[in-house]
Amino acid sequence: MVRTKKAYLLMVSVVMIFIVYVLYHNFVQDPQAAEFLHLKTDLKRTLHVDAWLTVMRIHVVFACLSMVAGAANFSAWIRMKYPKLHRMIGYLYLMCVLIVVVTSGYMAPYATGGKASSMAFNLLNIIWAAFTIVAIVKIKKKQVLSHRKWMTRSYAFVFTNLAIHLLTSLFHGGFGLAYTDSYKIAVYGSIVLLIFLAELVIRIVYKKA
Ligand code: HEM
């Protein structure tokens, strides 16, 4: 129990630090996303920068909100003391996921790495939306344990951007692969990694249930 609480606090800390970094980087340090867009060297279609930036900003804001909402709902204290709040935050999380998925769908055709990355992002869109909807269906059927497991699988995907950047740095900076190839590998790699991590957490946290 104590270990679970410590792991939860660690996760919340990572989420908070990451959110501050993402908001600072995308709204203060590089609001035109010049650094990121500069690396899109092999685009097959014209990128309308203003529209892309607007969509990307909506994407970032709701992505951060989904991280906060999800983290709040894993709190046993909120769940037990304020079940109505838990439900409201749950629907807020679902709405955020759907907005992130729709905005991602707009950006996917322009993804760094071309068609391979676009396909991986679309796969991510389907998986994330599906896992989240399954989690909601489970609680509608009063299957509490199953709901928590599916929400764990869903929440793993709020770490998509972090995982993509870490894996890209590993393959590009660490192994010396070209940036675009590293990015492609990172998008597919993050799907595998996040599904694996979710299953690991489920096995550790819910093993006695
Ligand atoms: C929930 C946490 C997430 C955050 C904080 C986040 C943040 C960002 C940011 C800042 C960008 C701009 C590029 C960059 O700096 O990486 C971006 C791009 C993008 N994100 Fe997300 N994102 C999240 C989750 C997701 C998920 C789950 C998906 C897919 C289902 C997704 C799909 C995309 C796509 C397609 C792009 C454009 C990539 C490109 O142009 O190469 N994001 N995201």
TrEMBL record:
This is DUF2306 domain-containing protein. InterPro entries: DUF2306_membrane. The lineage of its organism: Bacteria, Bacillati, Bacillota, Bacilli, Bacillales. It comes from the Bacteria. Pfam families: DUF2306. Signal peptide: none annotated. It comes from Gordoniibacillus kamchatkensis. Coiled coil: none annotated. Keywords: Membrane, Transmembrane, Transmembrane helix. The chain crosses the membrane at residues 7-24, 58-78, 90-108, 120-137, 158-179, 185-206. The keyword Membrane applies. The keyword Transmembrane applies.
